[in-house]
């Protein structure tokens, strides 16, 4: 608690940015955990929950939603963001996405980004400076993620971030 107060008050000189980012990630994780536990206890469908900061937990939820690995159409592709190697997944439906768009506007820019990946509002930074596609949105819940993926968009989930980046990658007439 003392560390949290010191970080909020800015009393930790050179290390405060790192502490603030860690604190924010922990607070997002805590906020994500409470509704998730409640949803499981209430027996709600998987798509009713919010995204977690844990990539592993999000993968488990995706397996329930899309009935993986039995469902062979949905792809959950693992990759690393940037030269620091932040773990991430791209979620899309094979046959609905344009493979060239996926490679050019999603995977290549994210895998080759340089510099510090985890920063204040990393998702906004990636949307504005890294992803060259004009049709990009953010999702904090599985329902929004599904709505994008089910029409041919690609959802990118990065470990430690409680939201997804939804990028237009449709490969069919829309």
Could you explain the architecture of this structure?
It is globular, with a radius of gyration of 17 Å. Mean pLDDT is 82; it is low at 35-46. It has helices at 2-9, 16-42, 55-65, 99-112, 122-129, 142-149; strands at residues 74-81, 86-93, 136-139, 154-158, 164-167. It is an alpha+beta fold and 174 residues long. It has 6 helices and 5 strands; from the N terminus they run αααββααβαββ.
Summarize the structure.
This protein is of the alpha+beta class. It has helices spanning 2-9, 16-42, 55-65, 99-112, 122-129, 142-149; strands spanning 74-81, 86-93, 136-139, 154-158, 164-167. A five-stranded antiparallel sheet has the order 1-2-4-5-3, sandwiched between helices.
Mean pLDDT: 82
Number of helical stretches of at least 4 residues: 6
Q: Describe the strand arrangement of the main beta sheet, using strand numbers.
A: 1-2-4-5-3
Helix content: 40-55%
Quaternary state reads: single chain
Measure the end-to-end span. Answer: 51 Å
- Please report which band the strand proportion falls in: under 5%, 5-15%, 15-25%, 25-35%, 35-45% or over 45%: 15-25%
Secondary-structure blueprint:
Elements: H1 2-9, H2 16-42, H3 55-65, E1 74-81, E2 86-93, H4 99-112, H5 122-129, E3 136-139, H6 142-149, E4 154-158, E5 164-167
Any key phrases for this structure?
single chain; 174 residues; alpha+beta; 5-stranded antiparallel sheet; 6 helices; 5 strands; globular
């Amino acid at each position: 608690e003392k560390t949290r107060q010191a970080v909020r008050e800015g009393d930790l000189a050179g290390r405060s940015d790192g502490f603030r980012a860690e604190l924010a990630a922990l607070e997002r994780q805590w906020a994500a955990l409470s509704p998730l536990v409640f949803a499981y206890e209430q027996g709600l469908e998987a798509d009713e929950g919010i995204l977690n900061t844990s990539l592993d937990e999000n993968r488990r939820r995706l397996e329930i939603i899309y009935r993986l690995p039995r469902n062979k159409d949905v792809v959950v592709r693992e990759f690393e963001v940037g030269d620091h190697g932040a773990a991430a997944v791209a979620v899309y439906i094979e046959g609905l996405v344009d493979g060239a768009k996926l490679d050019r506007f999603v995977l290549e820019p994210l895998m080759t980004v340089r510099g510090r990946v985890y920063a204040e509002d990393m998702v906004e930074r990636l949307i504005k400076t890294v992803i060259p596609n004009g049709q990009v949105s953010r999702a904090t819940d599985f329902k929004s993620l599904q709505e994008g993926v089910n029409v041919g968009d690609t959802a990118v989930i990065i470990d430690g971030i409680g939201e997804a980046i939804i990028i237009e990658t449709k490969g069919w007439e829309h």
